[in-house]
Design goal:
The complex is a heterodimer. Chain A is α+β, with helices and mostly antiparallel strands. Chain A is 34% helix and 23% strand. In chain B, helix 1 packs parallel to helix 5 and helix 11 packs across helix 13. Strand 12 of chain A pairs antiparallel with strand 22 of chain B.
Chain lengths: 508, 590
């Protein structure tokens, strides 16, 4: 005899309902003399309810059930009864070793104690063998347990408590159901269609079919398809902002730079801490290059060591050997400096320009949750005659608004190649304070003039990291989970599209 | 960015009022410094060693401000400097005038005679004397702290400049600046019990005093070590390592002899002037300093310090037009004064003539003057305008093409991954069963992280490492990357170039060779490449499984490969699944 299928059970329930009118409780419901498993029952009832054939309401009830050990005793007798049975009638009795062999160590141990206590058995004189003290016994424990098994309770509360203490039975909460007929009650199950098929449409069968109710609580099927990386989604948003504002993208696909373009051309003195081995990846091979434009190099050397263009310079001994060192660019401003050089030296001379780049930069950092040796920088540069600091502030305001950042202000800061230099702060409502979101400034004449730009041209620039706003927007705390091979494919697949100007609800 | 710890009470007294933390933070923000923390000795200790241990030390809970200052403002490296600059910024006082005062009649100027041997190790020395100082425990602490901060910052950990300060009354001028072999020098160094020969002293610092030991490398390689000696050959200092104990400054010291030895003379002068600017206020006649004459081996003499202001002129029109505000010439002068820059107007009112004081070595150009006007005006008060530059937006062609290909690959069911550009040489070569040709990859000289040795020349290592980290995800794994690799190229200025690559990988319990072959067809179709222009030809690379690999040719040039990776390759990357990859150069399709 096997447990009924959900469909068999459903038919059984319908038949019972048909016969009795209603099922007040499923507590005693049996299928072919077997009690019905609760889960299967619930499945069958739910399925019938979806077909609108029945309604059902849960009834919570307390019930006594046997433990595995209790079940065993109900079926085969208590340990003490087993021990009694194993002790033969008569004076011969049985040795403890033989008893243990006959009923097993556990039963022998527990059963002996109880049988002694009940005065069923005793020890025979000097031999120490076990002998019967009564002719027959009444196995009360077994009878009690059978009663509990069959009625789910016992007439004597004390017995229940004692057996519970002996871990033979326990009290559980069980759910039964009251079942009533519903609108579409019938004793037969008409096969329901689960889906509309081509065949049904062609044959017109759909007209006579009963369609199974759709389970709207279940999840739909994930569409098969690929996914773009969240960092690249944010990059796309920034690109759009730049394009909307008329910016041209710089050729930032050049990771190897000379110290000349990365530092010297930016009026960054050769003893500046950023040029330390600790912060910059210098190259072993190729190690150096002196192929930068010589005239520009001479102008840069002059302005560092002796000044010029109205500047007193840094007054130190500028060494070409430092400028020749090749490195992995530490900022995309290395690209900007070269672009400004080209802007100044193009046929027809300088023309106004708005330039941007979003690309990788490299720092010789110890890697941790907020630092990677490579990350992306977003940079914008505007070059024109007569630009003002007000233009830079106004422009960043518009740019930030497009990013969804509305409350922005500026703090004076220091940067070797910009003057004025301004840190961009935005008010973080969650933290309740102003946080730095980027840097900006007006390039110094000591940087622009040696590159060949006319005196009246002013260049404003600003930059921020791409990872930081991405981590904020997507609520990612560890940069290694965003960029690099430790990134989880599930994260890539499940992160939503990025709308910088909308709250995404995960911002941290 | 350097951080200076300032006693809150001292600051409030100097500023003539109290501030709430928020009010003071705002003042800092406007001025261009940053209130990092509102704390106390006790609070700092609690953070480091825990409440109980900190309280047990009986530390003070006197409120302290930790203030971040810009890296080029050495005049703000002390509580004195910050307090004075803020007082001036708030219009409560005027910038001081510093004066060099010759020694009293009958007294000769202190002199440092430079010996020629110093040229080979540390060629420059400058000096000055502060007379009739009054030290208190607070300003003594600040005096030591400022020297520390200068050493760390502008002196670049004492490599460029080293400061020695001495109780002049314990010494006898004239002084000599010499360079001697280390074994010939013995003296009692600051806070040492006994006199030691330099080799012994260095051994002591190297093994027992790391704080000083870290500076030994600056002179250790040299056959001779620099030395400041007085007329009785008392060792004043062994720069840039340590001063002599004999002349150490105490709370009772009245006359302070300052010497700065250097490899960079400009910075030595700035350091000397910064100490004078900060501490001459404690002299009996505030803001005065006595000069020291330096005599060079060739007989030339220089008198230090030079505390006279530097004159710099800026056009009013330049200042206002660069900021984007309308200001009267008088307003410009007023704003500059608030930034510690005394200024006057030219006769025609078109120029402002600024007397840059010794505190402001950061002023190099008129743009620095313009910035100070903007700060005093308030960055956040400047009218916001939008630049009237009319330009046309334009993507970089290779980036536009990459983005289009990225979208097609995502539409084809592959997910974009973004591994790093830096990897180990083994990952780039040996793990892929490729020999390093020696002239292909850019090699790093000084990576902090050992696994960063080269810039990748193929996208495969990053893709495979990403698959390794994701092998517990449901199969198949389908990923792609469109990014740059770097190749050495002697024809270019930087001797290397980026190349934009497309890589696609499929990992499953079976190889998926046909899937990747299909992706190739799809990419070519999307790039509108007719089948007559590309073909594949069976190849024999060690990276791939024999017989399941092909070169991809576009207009008869090999632009990449696809194939099942060799089982040893996937084992090297611990992927342990059959992986089929495609990698092509995207640039021929521009």
């Amino acid at each position: 005899m096997t447990a009924p299928t959900s469909e068999e059970l459903a038919l059984h329930i319908l038949a019972t309902l048909d016969q009795d009118g209603r099922i007040a409780t499923t507590a005693g419901l049996k299928y072919e003399d077997q009690l019905v498993d609760g889960q299967v029952l619930h499945g069958a009832l739910s399925s019938l309810e979806r077909r609108e054939m029945i309604t059902f309401t849960p009834l919570e009830e307390e019930r006594w059930v046997l433990t595995a050990e209790g079940d065993e005793i109900a079926a085969h007798g208590s340990h003490e009864a087993k021990v009694f049975a194993a002790v033969p009638a008569g004076d011969e009795g049985i040795s403890i070793a033989d008893l243990t062999a006959a009923v097993g160590a556990d039963v022998a141990k527990i059963g002996q104690g109880k049988a002694f206590k009940n005065k069923w058995i005793g020890k025979a004189g000097a031999s120490g063998r076990l002998v019967r003290l009564v002719e027959s016994v009444d196995d009360v424990t077994q009878a009690d347990l059978v009663e509990i098994r069959d009625s789910a309770t016992h007439k004597n509360a004390k017995t229940l408590a004692e057996l519970k203490k002996r871990k033979l039975c326990d009290k559980v909460k069980v759910t039964y159901y009251a079942v009533d007929k519903a609108a579409k009650f019938a004793t037969d199950l008409v096969k329901q269609a689960t889906d509309l098929t081509l065949d049904m449409i062609t044959s017109g069968a759909w007209k006579n079919l009963d369609f199974k109710r759709y389970n709207f609580d279940a999840l739909g099927q994930e569409p098969a398809g690929g996914h773009l990386h969240p960092l690249m989604k944010v990059r796309e948003e920034f690109r759009q902002i730049f394009f909307e504002m008329g910016f041209e993208e710089m050729p930032a696909n050049r990771y190897v730079e000379s110290s000349f373009w990365n530092f010297d051309a930016l009026f960054q003195p050769q003893q500046h801490p950023a040029r330390d081995m600790h912060d910059t990846f210098f190259l072993k091979s190729p190690a150096t290059s002196d192929r930068y434009p010589r005239a520009t190099m001479e102008a840069v050397k002059q302005v560092h060591s002796h000044g010029g263009f109205g500047s007193i310079g840094y007054g130190y001994d500028w060494k070409e050997a430092e400028a020749e060192k090749l490195l992995l660019r530490t900022h995309t401003t290395a690209v900007s400096s070269h672009m400004l050089y080209q802007l100044a030296n193009q046929p027809g001379g300088f023309k106004p320009a708005k330039l941007f780049s979003i690309d990788r930069v490299f720092r010789n950092e110890t890697v941790d949750a907020t630092h990677l040796a490579e990350f992306h920088q977003v940079e914008g540069v505007i070059a024109d005659v007569g630009m003002t600091l007000g233009d830079l502030i106004g422009f960043i305001n518009v740019f930030c608004q497009k990013m969804g950042v509305t409350n922005v202000r500026f703090k004076p800061a220091y940067n070797p190649y910009t003057e004025p230099s301004m840190e961009i702060f935005s008010y973080h409502a969650g933290l309740g304070k102003w946080v730095e979101i980027g840097n900006s400034g007006m390039f110094r004449p000591e940087m622009l003039r040696p590159l060949g730009l006319p005196e009246n041209v002013r260049v404003i620039a600003w930059g921020l990291s791409l990872e930081r706003p991405t981590m904020i927007k997507y609520g990612i705390d560890n940069i290694r989970e965003l960029l690099g091979h430790k990134c989880d494919l599930e994260m890539i697949q499940n992160n939503p599209i990025c709308r910088l100007d909308k709250k995404m609800g995960r911002e941290n | 960015m350097p951080t200076v710890t300032v006693d809150q009470q001292y600051l409030f007294e100097a500023l003539g009022r109290t501030y709430t933390t928020d009010e003071f933070r705002e003042l800092c923000f406007e001025f261009g410094i940053e209130l990092e923390e509102d704390t106390s000795e006790l609070a700092m200790a609690i953070e480091q060693i825990g409440e109980a241990a900190a309280r047990a030390q009986g530390l003070s809970d006197k409120p302290l401000y930790k203030i971040d200052i810009p890296a080029n403002r050495y005049d703000l490296l002390s509580p004195e400097g910050i307090a004075r600059s803020l007082r001036i910024f708030l219009g409560k006082t005027k910038p001081p005038t510093y004066t060099v005062v010759k020694p009293k009649k009958g007294k000769t100027m202190q002199r440092i005679v430079v010996k020629p041997e110093t040229a080979q190790i540390r060629p420059h020395v400058v000096g000055a004397v502060l007379r009739n100082m009054t030290f208190t425990p607070a300003n003594y602490e600040s005096f030591i702290a400022l020297q520390d901060k200068l050493h760390t910052n502008i002196c670049r950990k004492r490599t460029l400049v080293a400061i020695g300060t001495h109780d002049l009354d314990t010494l006898q001028g004239p002084f000599t600046y010499e360079a001697l072999a280390p074994e010939k020098i013995a003296f009692k160094a600051l806070n040492q019990e006994k006199s030691m020969a330099v080799p012994e002293l260095f051994e002591h610092y190297r093994t027992k005093d790391k704080h000083i030991g870290k500076f030994l490398h600056i002179i250790e390689h040299s056959p001779v070590y620099p030395l400041i000696l007085d007329a009785k050959r008392t060792v004043c200092s062994l720069p840039p390592i340590i001063n002599g104990d004999h002349s150490k400054i105490t709370l009772k010291t009245k006359n302070v002899f300052i010497e700065c030895t250097a490899t960079d003379l400009t910075k030595a002068k700035i350091v000397l002037n910064t100490i004078i600017a900060t501490f001459s206020q404690y002299c009996a006649t505030p803001f005065t300093v006595e000069p020291v004459e330096v005599v060079y081996p060739d007989g030339a003499t220089h008198v230090y310090p030079d505390v006279s202001p530097r004159n710099m002129t800026a056009e009013i029109d330049y200042i206002t037009s660069a900021i984007g505000v309308t200001l009267t010439p008088a307003q410009v002068v007023d704003y500059l004064e608030r930034m510690s820059l005394p200024a006057t107007l030219s006769a025609d009112q078109k120029q402002v003539e600024v007397s840059v004081p010794i505190t402001r070595s950061d002023i190099l150009h008129a743009c620095d003057i313009m910035e100070d006007v903007a700060i005093a005006y308030g960055f956040n008060n400047i009218p916001k305008t939008v630049p009237a530059v009319n330009t046309v937006g334009k993507p970089l062609p290779i980036n536009k093409l990459s983005d289009l290909v990225r979208r097609e690959l995502a539409l084809s069911g592959f997910s974009e991954v973004l591994p790093l550009t830096l990897c180990s040489s083994d990952e780039n070569y040996a793990y892929l069963r490729r020999a390093d040709p020696g002239d292909e990859a850019v090699v790093l000289a000084n990576p902090k992280t050992v696994e960063y040795q080269v810039v990748r020349t193929t996208l495969l290592p990053g893709i495979l490492k990403t698959l390794r980290e994701n092998k517990s995800r449901p199969l198949p794994l389908q990923v792609f990357e469109v990014s740059d690799i770097v190749l050495r190229d002697e024809s270019l200025e930087r001797r290397a170039r980026n190349e934009r690559r497309v890589a696609v990988a499929y990992a499953n319990k079976n190889s998926g060779f046909e899937v990747i072959h299909g992706v190739l067809g799809r990419v070519m179709k999307m790039l509108n490449v007719p089948t007559s222009e590309y073909r594949i030809a069976e190849s024999h690379h060690d990276t791939f499984f024999p017989g399941r690999q092909a070169d991809i040719l576009y207009r008869d040039q090999v632009i990449g490969q696809f194939g099942i990776l060799h089982p040893e390759v996937v084992a090297n990357f611990e992927v342990l699944l059959p992986v089929t990859v495609l990698e092509i150069n995207l640039e021929p399709f521009l």
